[in-house]
Design brief:
Elements lengths: L4 H7 L9 H8 L3 H11 L5 E9 L2 E2 L2 E2 L10 E9 L6 H8 L4 H13 L2 H6 L7 E2 L8 H6 L5 H7 L2 E6 L1 H10 L8 E8 L9 E3 H14 L2 E4 L16 E4 L5 H8 L12 E5 L9 H5 L5 E6 L2 E6 L9 H5 L5 E5 L12 H13 L4 E2 L2 E2 L8
Antiparallel strand pairs: 1-4, 2-3, 5-9, 6-7, 6-8, 7-10, 9-10, 11-14, 12-13, 15-16
């Protein structure tokens, strides 16, 4: 459903190593021109990543290129390809575009996640997607330290915003015939060029902020693609986000498909702090929390709300909705602090280091030194 047979042949031989089309063509036994077309066709599908590699004209590849006497080597560039890391957005694109096989595709992906593929996507740290604290939940000095959490700055950078349907909600409906009552159109908020024509899915800044505030009031959790650098930003930057709910979100539901997955979204560097004296047990925090860090408990004095910090991911939704000011965010300790990678390659390297460590668990068991190659 995703690859043509020739695309699968080529992609199946790729790794993280950057290679020219000629090198790949030689390995798979196809003409270079044909392989180039296949590689280029997989770039917009988020299957293949391409980079322009610059080198001095005196050395090219494994062989030397002659430079005339007295001339300085010239900087030249060549396009090289590699397999793209799995990015959240790839699956959503295909779920949206594959019809009428949408149900089958969604079911196959759930099977893939359940049988181990999801574990290798969601569990390694840093995560594929990170929690962004709600607007208004962070102090200005905290935003100065982590400007990639500044949602307001994102809205000021652009005049047009792309907002799309929640693909997880559509996937759940396709797979299981039902989903929640929250609105469909609540994902993205990606900044677009100011000349982009307005439409149902392309909003003005004012429209986008109004819609964003409506979702904040509902208590959804803001999850986005690792501060943008796995998508379009070259450095950590807020580029948009999904307003996720635990009932539909494939990321939040991953542990239900595979119990060896203990953590999915990358937590923020903040956790909720509760003042029990101010709590009136109204239950708004229970309603809002998408990771069940807030629950009800029956006591001799009646029902009360209980907060479990270990489950908190630092979204701030509970504090922003608490009518009595009993909850707010505070930064975690330096020992807990998650240092955001500076770019895609660093993010990927840190995930590989995590995978090779003895702390990595497969099917609930520690990998031994002999198994680290896996």
């Amino acid at each position: 459903m995703v690859f043509t047979p020739d695309e699968a042949l080529v992609a199946g031989t790729l790794s993280r190593k950057l290679e020219t089309a000629a090198e790949i063509a030689k390995r798979v036994g196809l003409p270079e021109a044909e392989v180039t077309v296949l590689l280029e066709s997989m770039i917009p599908k988020a299957m293949v990543r391409a980079d322009m590699v610059t080198f001095q004209s005196g050395v090219k590849g494994l062989g030397k290129v002659e430079v005339a006497s007295g001339q300085k080597p010239k900087a030249e560039s060549v396009k090289k390809y590699r397999l793209q890391s799995f990015l959240v957005g790839w699956y959503e694109t295909y779920l949206k575009n594959i019809k009428p096989e949408t149900k089958e595709f969604a079911q196959l992906y759930e099977q893939y996640a359940r049988e181990g593929g999801g574990e290798r996507i969601y569990s390694p740290r840093p995560g594929h997607q990170g929690v962004v604290p709600m607007r208004g939940s962070l102090k200005p000095e905290w935003l100065e330290r982590e400007p990639y959490n500044d949602i307001d700055a994102h809205f000021q950078r652009h005049e047009r915003f792309l907002v799309i349907d929640c693909v997880c909600k559509n996937q759940k409906a396709a797979c299981h015939g039902h989903s929640c009552d929250l609105p469909n159109r609540r994902c993205g908020f990606i900044g677009l060029p100011p000349t982009t024509p307005l439409s149902e899915n392309v909003l003005t800044r004012e429209e986008a902020i109004k819609l964003w505030d409506e979702f904040d009031a509902m208590g959804t959790m803001i999850v986005q693609g690792v501060y943008g650098f796995t998508y379009s930003a070259e450095k950590p930057q807020f580029v948009g986000g999904c307003h996720c709910c635990s009932c539909c979100c494939a990321l939040l539901n991953a542990p239900l498909l595979d119990h060896s997955i203990k953590e999915t979204v990358q937590r923020s560097n903040y956790r909720a702090v509760k003042d029990d004296a101010k709590c009136h047990a109204c239950g708004e925090c229970v309603r809002r929390c998408q990771v069940f860090a807030h629950t009800f408990k029956e006591t001799p004095d009646g029902k009360k709300t209980v907060y479990n910090r270990d489950k908190c991911v630092g979204c701030g939704s509970c504090g922003m909705g608490c009518p009595n000011g009993a909850l707010h965010l505070e930064p975690v300790s330096e020992e807990e602090w998650y240092h955001v990678p500076s770019n895609f390659i660093e993010w990927e390297e840190r995930r590989l280091k995590f995978l090779s460590s003895q702390n990595w668990r497969v099917a609930g068991e520690k990998i031994t030194q002999n198994d680290e190659h896996r």
